[in-house]
Amino acid sequence: MHQGAGSMKRIGVLGLQGAVQEHLDMLRQIGEIEACMVKYKADVENIDGLIIPGGESTAIGRLLSDFDLTVPLKARIENGMPVWGTCAGMILLARNISNDERRHLEVMDIEVMRNGYGRQLDSFKTTVDIPAVSAQKVPLVFIRAPYVVDISPQVEVLLSLDGHIVACRQKNMLATSFHPELTGDLSFHKYFADMI
């Protein structure tokens, strides 16, 4: 582990593609956190937690492979490093993707439907109560979002919307269908920081 006694938590944002800067900006608004971009194998060893941002899951998956990051990232996650996948990041963490034969990190016991909200509901916003995450209502932004269609008993559902699981946690792994980095609300970033 990188973190020493009383030192800052060092949270990385996977910097290959997607909403990287937005996550870094949110993290920098929380005290006691050093936010950094993760792009290379050496970066993986120097963080206490990782956010995999929204973007294009196929592109990010290919870049993980191109940058030789799949194996070291998977190893750190399986050894307990906290990780949070938002939107495309959820797809990258999933063991199964119901409408795609490609697999990426395969660390979380969830099955995900890519672009679950499809064309007719490409993007939408809502505000909900998520008691496990915040005492206040939390604004959510969905953009061509996936959702979880199946989970193992080890996975805790944090939020379902209209019968679809859109936020869940399994030990050190957090996955959300939506984009908290686009709302200005720090609830989920704080929740993730507390997992570290």
TrEMBL record:
The UniProt record lists the EC number as: 4.3.3.6, 3.5.1.2
**Active-site residues, record numbering mapped to chain:** C87 (nucleophile), H179 (charge relay system), E181 (charge relay system)
Query: What pathway or pathways are given for this protein in its record?
Result: Cofactor biosynthesis; pyridoxal 5'-phosphate biosynthesis
Question: What are the binding positions for L-glutamine in this chain?
Answer: G55, E56, S57, R114, I143, R144
- Reply yes or no: does the keyword Transferase apply: yes
Q: What's any GO biological process attached to this entry?
A: L-glutamine catabolic process
Q: Name one GO molecular function term.
A: pyridoxal 5'-phosphate synthase (glutamine hydrolysing) activity
Any GO CC annotation of this UniProt entry: glutaminase complex
**SUPFAM superfamilies listed in its UniProt record:** Class I glutamine amidotransferase-like (SSF52317)
**Keyword set includes ATP-binding:** no
Q: One Pfam family name from the record?
A: SNO
**What job does the chain carry out?**
Catalyzes the hydrolysis of glutamine to glutamate and ammonia as part of the biosynthesis of pyridoxal 5'-phosphate. The resulting ammonia molecule is channeled to the active site of PdxS.
Give the family, as the similarity comment puts it: Belongs to the glutaminase PdxT/SNO family.
**Subunit comment:** In the presence of PdxS, forms a dodecamer of heterodimers. Only shows activity in the heterodimer.
Q: What is this protein called?
A: Pyridoxal 5'-phosphate synthase subunit PdxT
